[in-house]
Amino acid sequence: MKPIAIFQHDDTQRPGFLKQTLEELGIEQRTFVPEADPGYVPRDARDFSGIVLLGSNRSVNDPLSWIEREARLVRAAMDADIPVLGHCFGAQLMARALGAVVCRNAWPDIGWSRLRAVPAGRGVFAQPEVWAFNWHYETFAIPPGAQRLLTSAHCMNKAFAIGKHLAFQCHFEVTEDIVREWLDGSANELLAASGPAVQQRDAILAQLPHVLPAVHAAAGRIYRRWALGLARPPLVSVGGGS
């Protein structure tokens, strides 16, 4: 099977629990950091069995060449039925590539929250609510032909699916180390944030040991389901002998 391409947009936005799950499944990965090397975004999505898009401190609406190149690659992958999985910025990039609007959410959404699975999403999550971690200021509209999967009290569109592709406004990939690193690296940003969907550092850390296992339980199911759609070669070639 061809490797999965993972697009990591800065040092702190790592694949975390997703990488662990892919390794358990024996799936090869190649990581690209397009902002560090804007000229090097792969040209052909068909070189990969799937594409993963991680978060970023950038907006998908920023006029940067690497964002445009990545958006074109994502659209080409989806058109070719190569599974794409997006987290936060990555989900917004998927939405934009499919023609949907990405704009400011009503307020910042930072911290742990329960997300409600709408009827279309209950087959994916196997339960009416799932825990996730959030850190975003923007949100996406649901693209034409896609289905909303998750919603919350403070952000209507938390996830969508279209074909083999899954997009999550939230972060299922976080580990304890990643959460702590974000809190340390963005301490002033967090103190300046306010609104009904913002948790401060102490509240986030207090919930972490109780909530993170539930996040990973949901993530494991999501990632394994997505991996089932990866482009794999046939076990026996057409016309081959037994």
Query: Looking across the biggest beta sheet, what order are the strands in?
Result: 2-1-3-4-9-8-7-5-6
Beta-strand percentage range: 15-25%
Average pLDDT score: 93
Q: What's the assembly state of these chains? A: single chain
Structural class, by secondary structure, is alpha/beta
The outline comes out as globular
Q: What would you say the CATH architecture is? A: 3-Layer(aba) Sandwich
Total domain units: 1
CATH superfamily caption = Class I glutamine amidotransferase (GATase) domain
Description:
One of its GO terms (molecular function) is transferase activity. InterPro entries: ChyE-like, Class_I_gatase-like, GATASE. It holds the Pfam family GATase. It comes from Piscinibacter koreensis. By secondary structure, the protein is an alpha/beta fold. It has one domain: Rossmann fold (3-Layer(aba) Sandwich), CATH 3.40.50.880. Helices cover 33% and strands 24% of the residues. It is built from 7 helices and 9 strands, in the order βαββαβαβαββββααα. It has helices at residues 16-24, 65-79, 89-97, 122-125, 176-185, 187-192, 201-227; strands at 4-7, 29-32, 50-53, 84-87, 102-117, 129-140, 147-151, 159-162, 165-168. A 9-stranded mixed beta sheet has the order 2-1-3-4-9-8-7-5-6. α1 (16-24) links the parallel β1 and β2. α1 runs parallel beside α7 and α2 (65-79) crosses α3. The protein is globular, with a radius of gyration of 18 Å. The model is unreliable at 235-242 (pLDDT under 50).
